[in-house]
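Today's session is about reading a structure prediction critically. Students often jump straight to the picture, but the first step is always the sequence itself: look for stretches that repeat, for charged clusters, for runs of hydrophobic residues. Only then move on to the predicted structure, which in these notes is written as discrete structure tokens rather than atom positions. Here is the chain we will use throughout the hour.
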Amino acid sequence: MVFKRIVLVRVHHLARSVLAWCCSRYKVIFFPALFQYYNCALGLEIKMVINTGHPDLDSKVGDWLNWDKNEKNIAEIEDLLKKNETATLAKIFGNRLEFGTAGLRGVMAAGPSRMNDLTVIQATQGMAKYLLECFDDVKTQGVAIGYDGRHNSSRFARLATRAFISMGIPVHLFSALVPTPYIPFSVCQLKTKAGIMITASHNPKEDNGYKVYWDNGAQLISPHDKNILKRSLDNLAPWDDAWDDSVREHPLVSDPLANINQLYFDVLAKECLRSELNQKTALKFTYTPVHGVGAPYVKMAFDTCKFQPYIPVQEQIEPDPEFSTVKFPNPEEGKSTLNLALATASRNNSTVILANDPDADRLACAELQPNGDWKVFSGNELGALLGWWMWSRAEQKGQNPATAAMIASTVSSKILQTMAEREGFLFEETLTGFKWMANRGLQLQKEGYQILFAFEEAIGFMCGIHVPDKDGVSASAHLSELAVHLENKGTTLNGQLEDIYLKYGQHVTLNSYYLCYDPITISRIFERLRNFENEPKTYPKSLMNGKYAIKGVRDLTNGFDSRQPDGKALLPTSSSSQMITFYFENGLDATIRTSGTEPKIKYYTELRAPPTQTDRHQVQATLEEMVQALVDEFLQPTLNQLTPRPE
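Below is the predicted structure for this chain, in token form.
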């Protein structure tokens, strides 16, 4: 039996504190929300004693219900108790949200493993305590907080603000929906000690998230993520007034929107090199924020760089937390998300489509081809184009290659590495995620390097390092200016991409994923690859019975790298995530990894050919054959009951 009924207790106001202590001690749960129902104005109802048969679970659920004041979330947990859903409760309360590649992120629902009012309060209380330990001037410099258009984002931002101001920490709280890149930019410009963006980026509508930036403007990395979690565990009980989200008029709260708008677009104006050409171009750009926050900011970017106004996708131009016209609010999914944009562009004789994801830190692009088809560029292809453009601009300005640098994540195309080898600038590879690329970029900047560009294959681009994170707003301006420059030269984005590959060699990629909701299956897949000959660190040696030989293996889960003399990987490792890269004799690099935010097994492949091999179709055919074999032999989707990527 999950709970036991006991007698309704009415107590005098002065006895409430004593009863509260007793109930906390014995895990008896208060339900103040029911006072009105029973008209107990001076009393306190004790509704149930939790008894799941698991004392530790009883304690966690009891504490949660005593702390939570969100009636919807209370009802959700109460309903699970009534229905004897002990296994579900154990799953919900078995773990807490932890900082991953994108901060805290999860489905919006009750419990410590989900995004909700209480987890936001607890995380921010821990963060406030930690900031006070780390910075003597946090009470003068404060923090910056922004939010997107998802359900509950504004409320989560206000609850986070309350936690900071209760500790005397000022908050620059934006008064309107803002793109994620505004927060790292604000941290740098306002010299705050941290920043928080409430967003789940391109995740489904049921999700939300809590992305944290440190005082250098880059996303949080260890040890700060772990230390904030520790302080949160010490501050789980909400502080006084924690649930009061009426913070706008508080003297410690200010609105940075107008100031940041001015500063951001002042920086962008200096980066736009061809304003006169932009103004005169015959190109028409179609734009969609995919129901997100990007529209007014990309409009300001277009105004700043003197482009003619973009053609909006009217059905998607306003923020909509339901993402009502798309199955996935992620332009990385390609034409399935861009259908309305394609139709709008076709109606208006527009040849270039730009699309941000809902928090406007990513950018997708499609271009009309001479045969009437639309080409949707991959993240790797846009990385090649923007990388070439940022180098071309820097070279025209007289940039010394020896002091220039570009960065890409380890699962992204190595086209920047090939460019660097040819042109003489520095290229560095990091782990997946802009928290690694931005922090490394800031370190290189301190060493005297000019950070020209960084990108990841998941349509994330950092042009310069004014914003030490991916930025879909500035990237939209830079890519549009590139398109105008190319039109003036009589070519197109796809034409330039072909020229890049002719110069530097064909770089053909094929990336996708399978869905897998069973952690045991995921572990079994990767452990099989690590023990391929029934011994540790014996990985596959080839594909297709020796047709394609593997020359090296790097495993960033256990730190093994067969290419290094000591067998140890150079990049940081993490035992909590799966990631293995296979290096083939013919130039294929293939990485298989789990997602940090979604139930996916992803694979990233790139076949690099020398410039002398100009037949891209042949390179593509070889890649497709190898990838199919890799999926069949390494992932075994039928045997493991994996779900293919939805079309």
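Discussion point for the tutorial: The first strand starts at residue 3 and ends at 5.
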